[in-house]
Design brief:
Layout: H1 5-22, H2 28-56, E1 62-70, E2 75-81, H3 85-103, H4 111-130, H5 134-143, H6 145-155, H7 160-189, H8 194-200, H9 207-224, H10 233-240, H11 243-268, H12 270-279, H13 282-299, H14 304-328, H15 334-369, H16 380-383, H17 385-398, H18 405-420, H19 422-448, H20 454-457, H21 465-483, H22 486-503
Antiparallel strand pairs: 1-2
Helix pairs in contact: 1-2, 1-4, 2-3, 2-4, 3-4, 3-11, 3-15, 3-21, 4-5, 4-6, 5-7, 6-7, 7-9, 7-10, 8-11, 9-11, 10-11, 10-14, 11-14, 11-15, 12-14, 13-14, 13-19, 14-15, 14-18, 14-19, 15-17, 15-18, 15-21, 15-22, 17-19, 17-21, 18-19, 18-21
């Protein structure tokens, strides 16, 4: 009998949360140590899990566990992992570890509740990536909603109440549509098993109900990604969330919707995806709006945190574009579809690393200056050289500079899309141009170049050792994956090829 490592990964942060719950709130040091320790242990387990998946074969579901949960309705505790989910689980554990380590030096109010909520959030996030039952998937999907709502609402900025409520309403509305779609799928097929449903193709002969179920799932996933025009909650949530909350929101929470499209939406409704990409091209139009609109809005932002938030809208648009190209592909163009899908999946991982690191750095600057207005800065390259070096690497990765992690997602997405959706590819390239403009003009020039305002920033300190330790792993990963993407790409490709074989 194999060790139930997936259940162990799920239970570990939950046990950490329960332990934090019984520690007296006055013992802040112990709470912090326990929170970080359990996050580190989860990261160790996630690393071992990834290694084991590689050994067993990343192209198929591995380390599955299946136990009857609610027999009357054929609901199972069913979990598994493959080359799509294992890296995202590891990314979740890494960012949570860094977030709690950073928070140990910055958060002073209601520390007990803070660590409790973040550990509960980790359980919900990992649960989504391992669930193979629709009801189980939905439960974990909802678990992550409440902790993030409270994190924004309690430790956020001046407009935290507005941002938290907006986040909650948007995501809850999407969840309602998803629940209705899940119930409709069950009544049609008699099962909640995601793997079995991909084989059965719900409502294959009933286009009306197929449309309703497809759009129910799509709305829930699109809000989470988010895709234009369902993105408006994101800039407010990012801007008002505490630094660690923004990191987890951008690094992992946005990936839940994308993962739902990959694991549920596309395999269950490939015909609907193709119809709304080729016959009625709603989805690629929305993807292009996300890319171009998101980048253009960044050019108008002076709040650095809000700028990076809108950049996430643009970057996740590349994922959606790659997914659209995949839906077009057939047996004759499977290589192009594989390229587009590999690029889309790569975007999930690289965006988490790059944008998570940038949000950390924004928070570090705000702790020192108490402002995020780009117009207030200039000349920080000489004043904060370590900060400059780390931010420059991540900013250049965000614009897709070759040699850094962000390049490969755009390269593979456009490589596949240029063959399958050529017009969309040509329009989408504009997003790269606009991204380069706002990164170089707004971020690099206004923060680091020009003259330093010595009356305000002459004594602005550079990063401390623990701040460097927080961001350094993400910067190193950005460079290493940019120079040597082959191992991670091979992991993704194994799972992508399996998914494509089920579609065509």
């Amino acid at each position: 009998m194999q060790f139930p490592i997936l259940s162990a990964i799920l239970v570990t942060p939950l046990l950490g949360a329960l332990l934090v719950l019984v520690i007296p709130r006055e013992d802040v040091r112990t709470i912090r140590r326990v929170g970080v320790a359990f996050a580190v242990f989860s990261l160790v387990l996630a690393t071992l899990l990834w290694i084991r998946v590689e050994q067993l074969g990343a192209g198929s579901l591995q380390l599955t566990e299946r136990y009857s949960w609610i027999p009357a309705f054929d609901i199972w505790y069913s979990v598994g992992v493959d080359g799509l989910s294992a890296p995202l689980i590891w990314l979740t554990a890494l960012l949570m570890t860094l977030a709690l380590f950073y928070s140990a030096h910055t958060v002073e109010e209601r520390v007990k509740e803070y660590y409790l909520l973040f550990l509960l959030l980790e359980t919900g996030l990992i649960g989504v990536f391992v669930a193979l039952d629709l009801v189980l998937f939905y439960v974990f999907w909802e678990i992550g909603l409440v902790p993030m709502f409270l994190i924004i609402g309690i430790w956020g900025g001046k407009r935290r109440d507005y941002a938290a409520i907006k986040f909650f309403i948007y995501t809850l509305a999407g969840s309602v549509f998803a629940l209705l779609a899940i119930l409709a799928i069950y009544f049609n097929t008699g099962t909640f098993d995601i793997v079995e449903l991909a084989r059965l193709r719900p409502f294959a002969r009933d286009l009306r109900w197929a449309n309703l179920a497809f759009w129910g799932l799509w709305l829930a996933f699109a809000i989470k990604v988010p895709i234009f025009p369902l993105h408006t909650w994101l800039p407010d949530a990012h801007t008002e969330a505490p630094t660690a909350g923004s990191v987890m929101l951008a690094g992992v929470l946005l990936k839940l919707g994308a993962y739902g499209m990959l694991r549920i939406g596309l395999p269950l409704f490939p015909q609907m995806f193709r119809y709304y990409v080729v016959d009625v091209p709603i989805l690629p139009v929305l993807a292009l709006f996300s890319i171009v609109y998101g980048a253009l809005v960044c050019l108008a932002q002076w709040d650095l945190k809000r700028l990076i938030a809108y950049s996430s809208v643009a970057h996740m648009g590349y994922f959606t574009l790659g997914l659209c190209a995949t839906a077009v592909g057939g047996t004759a163009t499977q290589a192009a579809a594989a390229s587009a899908l590999n690029g889309a999946v790569w975007q999930l991982f690289s965006h988490g690393i790059v944008t998570g690191g940038m949000f950390f750095l924004v928070g570090m600057l705000y702790e020192r200056s108490h402002t995020r207005d780009l117009r207030a800065f200039g000349g920080l390259a000489g004043q904060m050289p370590v900060y400059y070096g780390l931010m420059l690497v991540l900013a250049l990765a965000s614009l897709g500079l070759p040699g850094l992690a962000g390049f490969w997602s755009e390269f593979f997405v456009f490589r596949g899309t240029a063959q399958l959706l050529p017009l969309a590819a040509y329009i989408g390239v504009l997003g790269i141009v606009f991204t380069a403009a706002y990164i170089l003009w707004k971020v690099v020039q206004h923060l680091f170049l020009g003259s330093l305002d010595t009356t305000r920033w002459a004594h602005l300190p550079d990063l401390t050792w623990w701040e460097q330790l927080t961001v350094a792993p993400l910067v190193v990963l950005t460079v290493v994956l940019g120079l040597y993407p082959a191992p991670l790409l091979a992991t993704f490709d194994a799972a992508v090829q399996t998914l494509l074989r089920t579609l065509f």
